[in-house]
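HOLO CASE FILE
Compound: zinc ion
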Amino acid sequence: MKNRSLNEMKFEHGCLVAPSILAADFSRLGEAISGVETGGADLLHVDIMDGHFVPNLSMGPGVVSCIRKGSDLPFDVHLMLSEPGRYIEPFAKAGADHITVHVESRGDLADVIRRIHDLGCSAGITLRPGTPATSLRPYLEMVEMVLVMTVEPGFGGQSFMEGQLPKIASLRKMIDATGKKIYLEVDGGVAVGTARQVKAAGADVLVAGSSVFGAKNGFAAAIKAVREDA
Ligand code: DX5
Ligand code: ZN
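Model generated. Tokens follow.
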């Protein structure tokens, strides 16, 4: 049994912080991951891009399997893929603990979510900034996490889209109405200043790429600053 499930997460600090390795120095990826792990990260956010669903490429299951060997952090894998169903098994086998898929991607997503669970992972559903919150309704009761994108997926280091705050708040309401424990994660431009806005709107998991890996005063201080802002 894995001991890295989302249900084991402790909200000692109010919000969970998930550094996104997309912003790390890939020539020293192992060191960067150890740095955020000892620096207090709760999850490691791993962005997977296929150059089709989004106009960028990132990494495949081979990289995930390598970094798995050096980290005990729960891996929160965000699939920005046109056909996620084709890749969930390789990523689960590579060491993903949680897998999030986009509602705009192709395939029978209810079946994809069931298969994520069958592979021993928790499942998440996410949406682009232009996609309405209601599009997630059919999947809400099936997932352990909802992810709201506050930038257009594809690249790190973009500016936070404040216009997504009402969507975070409405998804918080929709989640609460289910009566289930479903995490609400926010991804894109989260830093000191925006962390408090997304927390106030109802988020409890914060993805932070550039604000952590690009920090000048070290990963631990950057994680603490984001967490304290929220
Ligand atoms: C964007 C990715 C994000 C990104 C966040 O497509 O899903 O996870 O790495 O990076 P920052 O925090 O720099 O916006
Ligand atoms: Zn992401």
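CASE NOTES: The helical segments are 29-38, 61-68, 88-94, 109-118, 165-178, 195-201, 210-213, 219-229. The first helix runs from residue 29 to 38.
CLOSED: yes
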